[in-house]
Design a protein that fits this description.
Elements lengths: L1 H19 L3 H11 L5 H4 L9 H40 L18 H14 L4 E2 L5 E3 H4 L24 E3 L4 H11 L4 E10 L11 E11 L4 H16 L5 E8 L2 E10 L16 E10 L1 H6 L8 E8 H9 L12 H4 L6
Parallel strand pairs: 1-4
Antiparallel strand pairs: 2-3, 4-5, 5-9, 6-7, 7-8, 8-9
Helix pairs in contact: 1-4, 5-10
Length: 345
């Protein structure tokens, strides 16, 4: 029958095109043109209504056999192209396992940042929030809000880098506390403020014009010196070891009253006296005190209802004591040989 012969010719033509396909796009084009519902082979089904009896059955069988054979060829070709693509990718990405591996060098973390991270970890575990502030501050926030007016002699203790008559590089991180108190709008506060500070100073083994501080501030009802003492004892023993003895001495800071200097027992001689502690058995580590009532008033707190304590610790000082660093300048010089001593996984 002529129609069956035409089906056979069309089948052979489609199979020949499938065999010639060399990649996925060409195979998809054949699928779209010859295996879809609108393909010439499916169009021939329209002739089935012209046939009767056995001719109709034979014609239908011929089309079904042709579709089946084409589908088998198509699947076979599809697998062949896919296998070839995978093989080409494997060849392209082949790795010679006999070659030496790449040596990845693990860098160290500057002890300055290790100490900041450790202090922040200790205080955040105690419920403190971390607040940071800008390096460039106004005279108002840097001094006046800390109870140091323009004629106050304490300004001579902080020889500063002024940018204009009213702006300067901050001499301590206390301005960040003033900003935080403004944001709190008279509500309780429990924060630490890490960052860099700047004061004109001679650069030598123990001094630098740039240094780091972490200052802390707690304001709430019924806060007293006992809370400050317990907090600092817990912090210092976590930082320097559970066997450290902590000593408090009276001192003076414009923004706290009363004020204290805090010492820890020398980790070299354990309080017996040595050159490191200058024979005293103790090393000065930080300053602290109860927030001055005037500072509370300037920040929107009623000192009759609220009280608070504040403290500040030098980051480099802690690093030098913890790691036996003999020159503060090494922390800032970026010498890889120095930094590699402080690798921490």
């Amino acid at each position: 029958m002529e129609l069956i012969k035409k089906v056979e010719e069309l089948k052979n033509e489609i199979i020949a095109k499938i065999k010639e396909a060399f990649d996925e796009p060409s195979l998809r084009l054949i699928q779209e043109n010859h295996l879809s519902k609108k393909s010439p082979l499916n169009a021939m089904m329209s002739h089935i209504k012209e046939l009767q009896g056995e001719e109709k059955a034979s014609f239908g069988q011929a089309i079904n056999n042709a579709k089946k054979e084409i589908a088998e060829f198509f699947a076979s070709k599809e697998k062949e192209i896919s296998d070839k693509k995978i093989q080409e990718k494997l060849e392209k990405e082949k790795i010679d396992i006999t070659l030496p591996s790449i040596d990845y060098h693990m860098g160290g973390i500057n002890p300055f940042y290790q100490i900041i991270d450790e202090i922040c970890d200790i205080f955040t575990s105690m419920g403190y929030q971390v607040k940071e502030g800008p390096d460039v501050e106004t005279d108002y926030f840097n001094f006046e809000r800390m109870n140091i007016p323009s004629n106050h002699p304490a300004r001579e203790m902080q020889d500063s880098f002024y940018i204009t008559n009213t702006t300067l590089l901050r001499t301590h991180t206390s301005p960040a506390q003033a900003h935080a108190m403004d944001e709190a709008k008279g509500q309780p506060l429990k924060i630490i403020c890490p960052g860099k500070c700047f004061r004109r100073d001679d650069d030598d083994a123990t001094h630098s014009h740039q240094f780091g501080q972490v200052e802390g501030l707690v304001i709430d009802k019924n806060i007293n010196l006992g809370n400050l003492k317990a907090t600092l004892e817990l912090f210092l023993r976590k930082m320097f070891g559970e066997k450290r003895e902590v000593r408090f001495r009276s001192s003076y800071f414009p923004f706290t009253e009363p004020s204290v200097e805090v010492d820890i027992s020398c980790m070299e001689c354990h309080g017996k006296g040595c050159p490191i502690c200058k024979g005293t058995g103790y090393i000065e580590i930080l300053g602290a005190g109860m927030v001055h009532p005037h500072v509370l008033e300037m920040s929107g707190y009623d000192p009759k209802e609220y009280s608070g304590f504040a403290f500040g610790i030098g980051i480099e000082r802690v690093a030098m004591l913890r790691y036996g660093i003999d020159d503060i300048r090494k922390i800032y010089q970026g010498d890889v040989r120095f930094i590699e001593q402080f690798k921490r996984m």
